[in-house]
Amino acid sequence: MEEIQKKISQLSNELNEHNHLYYIEDAPVITDFKFDQMLSELQDLEKQYPQFKDPNSPTQRVGGGVTKFFDTIEHRYPMYSLSNTYSKDELVQWETRIRKILGVDTEICYTCELKFDGASISLTYENGALVQALTRGDGVQGDAITTNVKTINSIPLKLKGNYPKFFEIRGEIILPWMGFHKMNEKRAELGEPLYSNPRNTASGSLKLQDSSLVAERPLICFLYALAADQLMIDSQFEALKKAREWGFKVPDSASLAHSIDEVFEFITEWDEKRKSLPYEIDGIVIKVNQFNQQNKLGFTAKAPRWAMAYKYQAQQASTVLLEVQYQVGRTGAITPVAILKPVLISGTIVKRASLHNQDQIEKLGLRIGDTVFVEKGGEIIPKIIGIDHDKRASFKEEISFISNCPECKYPLTREVGEVQHYCKNEIACPPQQIGKIQHFIGRKAMDIEGLGGETVSLLFHEGLLSNIADLYRLKKEKILPLERMAEKSVNNLFEGIEKSKNKPFSKVLFGLGIRYVGETVAKRLAKAFGSMNALMGATAEAMTETEEIGGRIAESVVKYFSKSSNIEVIKVLSSSGLQMEEAQNLNKPHSIFKGKKFVVSGVFEHYSREGIKSEIESFGGIIISSVSSKTNFLVAGDGTGPSKKTKAIDLKIPILNEKEFLNLKEQGI
Ligand code: AMP
Ligand code: ZN
C-alpha cells in the first residue's frame, strides 16, 4: 500500500514538473506521448486507490467535474479596477499628482507591463497548493471557478521554491489568437455561429459547467500581482520575478522604467510589437514599483493611485444604427446583425457589425437610431462597443428580438442555457435548406466540382432542388433553359455529381450536416460502425464507446436518424449509388479483425500508439477507449494501467502483448 501511495506521489511530482517545463518554460524534455502515458497510469492508479488521490493531482487538468452553480465568495483583498487613459499628457499629470504625495524630488521607478485582454482571476494558494480561484465579479465578490481553472495547464496546482504559506495572486486568463481561430474554424465547419473575440470566449469558457469542456479550450493564464498580509518582497518587479520562480507564467515582457520618459519608450515600442503578439493586449499597465511608495499612495474608491493603464487607441468610429437584421444559418441559428450608416474605419468602409445574440443587444441597451461606437480590431468582424448616450433623442425605438424566423416565419426557440435563438423548421426554412446543400457539396464533404453555392441557390429558388437527395434527381432538360446555365457548365455539373458517388462513406456522413458531426467525428463514426445501416441501428450508448465520441454527439446522431425526412433522404442517396459503407468493409481481403473491438494501451516497440490503432482499423477492427464486456481484445504495451488489465482479466478478455498481437495479425482470428 505504501508502495502505491509513493508511486502516486512520485508520478504526480514528475507530471507537475513536466507540465511546468512544457507550459511555462516552453522547453519540454519528454514526448507528449510519454507524458500521456504517465498521466494515464496515474489516472488508473487514482481510480483504483481513490484514498490516495490529491485534489491537486495533475489528472485534474483533464477536467470532468461539473459545477451546476458557482458559489459567490468575498475577495479577501478587493480586486480594484485600473484608472486608464489614452493620452501621454494625462500620464504626465498622473506623475505630477503622485509626486505631490511622495515628494517632488523622490525617485520613482515604474514597472511597465502589457495589459492582457482576457478575464481577470484571483488564485489562492495555501502551503503551495491551489485552493481557490475566483472571478473578479464586482471586485468585492467573485464566483468560485476552481474546478474549471484547474484544467488550465499554465496555472500551477503545486508551487516550487520558497513561497509564502498563504497568498493570493492575480492574473488574466486569455485565449491566444491561434486557439481562438481554431475554435472558430471548428464552429464554422459545424455551422455554428462564430465566437466574436478572444476575450469574451475566454471569460465565457470559465463559466462552463462541465470542466472537461474547459480543458479542451487552449486557455492560458498570465500572472501579474501578489496580495498577502505580509510579503517579504519590496517591489512589483521583484514580485513578478518571485512569482516566476514559484512556477507561475509571468511573461518577460515586463520592464522596469526609471522615469516617465522610459515609460513612453516602452509604450511606443509595444505599440508596434503588439501587432505580432500571439495574443491580444489592449494597452500597457504602469505601476509604481516600490511597495512602500504604493502604500503611501493607497487607493481611491475604485482603483489604486499607484497604477495607470495606458490604452492603445483601437480603431474606432461612431456612426448610426439604422436597423437590425437577422441572419439564419445552416443549423437554424439566428444571428442579429447591426446595419450601420457606412463609416470609414482604418481604411475600410464598415456597414455591418455582428450583434451575436439577444443578450448582447440587451447588454448594450441598443435602440434603433442610436449613435454607436464601432471598433475594428485585428481580424475580427467589426463590433459595437457602446452607445453615445448624449446623442440619444428621447424617444428611440427599442429593439425587440424577433420571435419568428425572418425567412420562414416559424416560431423561434431558445433553449435553457443557450444564448442563441434557433429556427427549428429545418426542412422548410430556405436558408437552412440552401445551407445544408451548400455544406454537402463543399470541399471537405462531397466536393462536387461544377456546382457552386450560387448555383445551389439558383436551383433552389427555381424549385429544382430542395434537399441533398434532389441533387441526384436533377434533370438536364430542366436546368438548360435557366439563365446562366450553358450546356458546358451543366455538363460539368452532372459530371461532378456523378463523381461524388465514389466519395468515401465518411464524407457522405460528414456531408449530411448532422449537428456536432465534423470531419473528424464523421471519420471516427464511419470507421467504428462501418456502414450507414449499422450507424442508424446503433444506440447513443454504443456510439459513446468510440474514441472521442461523447454523449452530446451521440445523442445528436440518434436524433438525426429518428426523423423520417432524414431517413427518406438517406434512402435516395443510397439508391443513387453513394458510398454507404467504409471501403475496407467492402472488399475484404484485409478484414481479419472485422467488427472486433480493441482497446489499445501503453507503449509499443514497433508501433506508435496511433500507428497500431490505425493498423487495427485498416483490418476492420474497431478501437474503443475503455474495457467493457463488449471488448474483444486488450492490446497492452508497456505501462498499461493496472485497472485496465484487472478489468480485462475479470471479464475474461484476452490480453495481448505486442508479439501476440503481431501473431494474431499474421494468423487471423
Ligand atoms: P479595466 O478592466 O480596463 O478597468 O482594467 C483593469 C483590468 O486590467 C484588471 O482587472 C485586469 O484584469 C486587467 N489587466 C491586464 N493586464 C494587467 C496587468 N499587467 N496588471 C494589472 N491588471 C491587468
Ligand atoms: Zn426559418
Q: Please, could you describe this protein's structure?
A:
The protein has 669 residues and is α+β, with helices and mostly antiparallel strands. The protein is 36% helix and 18% strand. The strands form 5 sheets. Strands 12, 13, 14, 15, 16 and 17 form a 6-stranded antiparallel beta sheet that branches.
Terminal residue distance? 39 Å
How many beta-strand runs?
A: 21
Can you give the mean pLDDT? 90
| Rg, Å, rounded | 29 Å
Which residues form runs of ≥5 with pLDDT under 50? Answer: none
Q: Helical region count? A: 25
Largest sheet entry: 6 strands, antiparallel
Q: Structural class, from helix and strand content?
A: alpha+beta
Shape: flat
Give the amount of beta strand, in percent.
Answer: 15-25%
| Helical content (DSSP H or I, runs of 4+) | 25-40%
Q: Any ligands, ions or cofactors bound here, and which?
A: adenosine monophosphate, zinc ion
